Fold:
Amino acid sequence: MSKSTKLTIVEAESEKFPFVYRTPLKFGGRVVKDVTVFRTSLTIEDKAKKKTAVGMGEMTMGTAWAWPSKQLSPEMALRTVITLADRIVQALPDLEPASHPLHFWPQIKAIAKAKAAELVEAMKLTEPIPDLAIALAASTADIALHDAYGRLNNANAFDCLTPEHIGGDLSTWLGEDFVGKHFQDAILSKPTSTLALYHLVGSLDPLSTADLSKPIGDGLPETLEEWIRTQHLSHLKIKLTGQDLDADVGRLVEIERIAMRVAPTRIWSYSMDFNEACENEDYVIDFLERIDRLAREAIGKLHYIEQPMGRDLRARKEVTMHRVSRLKPVVIDESLTDLDAFMFAKQQGYSGIAIKACKGLSDSLLFAAAAKNYGMKCYVQDLTCVGASFLTSASLASRIAGLTAVEGNGRQYCPAGNKDWESLYRPMFKVLGGVVPTELLGGVGLGFAWPRNLLSKKYASLAQG
Structure:
């Protein structure tokens, strides 16, 4: 579909679905016990060809991550972001016609920022809505547009990133460094057949039966040891305090001990997530040096370190990651909000990025292209995503060149959000062999079909994947 083709959003609507976690998730000093899934459903039209298509996007509204406010209660932050998401969806039919979701995305971001400012004033909030929370609120509209665009063209949305579809090269979004450069340098032409699954080890998660004080008794694994045994895991994302060196070192040493006891010959990969809590670069270096002394084999399994410092890197420009990145890759997550933040992190010594569909599928794709161009490592993580939101994240990850793993922890903390999807995509949610079969995600739209029981008559065509 050429750039001259103009698409309009003829209608859009939203729904919310609350879920209670089976067990609390603690990270960055915050404990999360439930989640609201936000869904955007929309219809786009190509008037010239007299064609319409529908699309859907879902995302977990993880405001504990996107907006860890010290002034507003978690409940108020969540209510504000959901209200903002609703207002963004209501404004979608007013957008100017565009040829591709990537050309709608700047409009959506502009409207999201404007609506956020209006909301702060209307609700008399004591602080602005941060950029990360605004991106989260806008993400489902963007996801739904990519889904609809793929379905309009009877194609997978990730196959619709060619110059013919987007109308040229990447310089429109990423600047003059990308003249003559295209997504095909960073995005695969078909999904990777399988990806290893990064299992989350939260700060409250029991590692062995000795740590299990209150069994849940729902039939799912309840300790890290049980998860490793039953799902044959090989990739662990480990949450650390970033403030208690003894506790952080002890946590990793114990995890390494359990991993070696359960599967000593397995090829293990660990990532460390400090969730912005470290005071400086020295803390991370001290951590690595102590691990090297106490559990030397674990150092070789540590593939990257995530977001050791606060998300506003410019607030402490004197703290860089050059020394750490010479030892291990260091990636940004919460800091990654736009290309300027990306380039500043690179300047400060960070060696990679964590992309998430909850920041918008369009930006995730653009950040992946930027990472490829600038020699930065790229990882795909989720936001305790369930159902369609996890499949979207996995579908994205399966198309990133060089990626071998994806995070997916919704099955651990919120399996209720996956139940409707298990009949169609059971291997994606009931993990075997430590991997998810992303080859299942090569259908039209975002690559997957929706369960019929979740669809009204208007959106029945989404049952075709």
Remarks:
- The chain has a mean pLDDT of 97.
- Residues 185-459 form a domain with the TIM Barrel fold (CATH 3.20.20.120).
